[in-house]
Amino acid sequence: MKLEQFLESQKVAYEKLTHPPAYTAQGLAAEEHVPGMNVAKPVLVQAGKEYVMCVLPACCRVDLDLVSKATRAPSARLANEEELRKVFADCELGAEPPFGNLFGLRTLMDESLQKDDYLVFQAGTHTQAVKMKRADYEKIAAPVVAPFAHHV
User: Would you state the pLDDT for residue 124?
Assistant: First the structure.
């Protein structure tokens, strides 16, 4: 698995989790019995001419105007399923790990995630997840931190 090799190469501690299929970030939170604020949900956005991986809590939604502002792009829109399949070819659709650098993308992380001690996220499939310290995630994902999410 690309993610596991990446985490091992970065020498960070993490816990592998296996759960019944979860097709949403909130579903992952329920299956793993963790708050939605601790589940890192990746959302692919096209900001200007580039794709950006936006990472936010499961219980939040992306504000595209704020993404546009944070990336200094003239506009931003959600990627469609065809684009997701192309960018994340080695992942199950909707189970991408929140590391843009694994896919040649810039990562934008909502500032609200900085309040968390740990994050849980899908590991490329709907039945596998990873739990790790948020500080370690930030260290190896190197996200740009900005406000762009609204609690649902």
Answer: 94
Pair 141, 107: CB distance under 8 Å: yes
Cα–Cα dist 149/121, whole Å: 17
Secondary structure string (H, E, C) spanning 45-108: EEECCEEEEEEEECCEEECHHHHHHHHCCCCEEECCHHHHHHHCCCCCCCCCCCCHHHHCCEEE
Residue 112's identity, in one-letter code, is: S
Do the strands 106-110 and 144-146 form a parallel or antiparallel pair, or are they unpaired?
parallel
Domains of the chain: 2-151 (3.90.960.10)
Task: Measure the CA–CA gap between 19 and 26, rounded to whole angstroms.
Answer: 13
Q: Could you tell me if 131 and 10 are in contact, meaning their C-beta atoms sit under 8 angstroms apart?
A: no
**Any residues with CB less than 8 A from the CB of 139 and at least 6 apart, and which?**
10, 12
Question: What does the block give as tokens for 118?
Answer: 């740990």
The residues, ordered by sequence, that sit 6+ positions from 89 with a Cβ below 8 Å of its Cβ are none
Task: Give the integer Cα–Cα distance in Å for 83 and 114.
Answer: 29
With a cut of 50, list the residues of the chain below it in pLDDT. 1
Give the pLDDT of residue 66. 97
